[in-house]
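Worked problem 6 (solution included).
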Amino acid sequence: MSLLITKRCINCDMCEPECPNEAISMGAEYYQIDADRCTECIGHYDRPTCQQVCPIDNTIIANPQRVENSDALWEKFVLHHHADRL
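Solution. The predicted structure is:
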């Protein structure tokens, strides 16, 4: 699954610079995650860095609209970061 930032977001600016996939940006009211770019940090870290730095519990959650297994997230990582080598 890619991740989703909920309305609990306080716009603290902690998550955006931590995202290695540049999937986080400011939305109309609070930060949002581009599900097409989010790999839950697979290919970069053991755990999603946005969840680690978020000061509000349960603000960044699995996106129920984007169910993806580890293989699909890995494929997305490869496509975004190594497309020039394919």
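Discussion: The longest strand covers residues 3-5.
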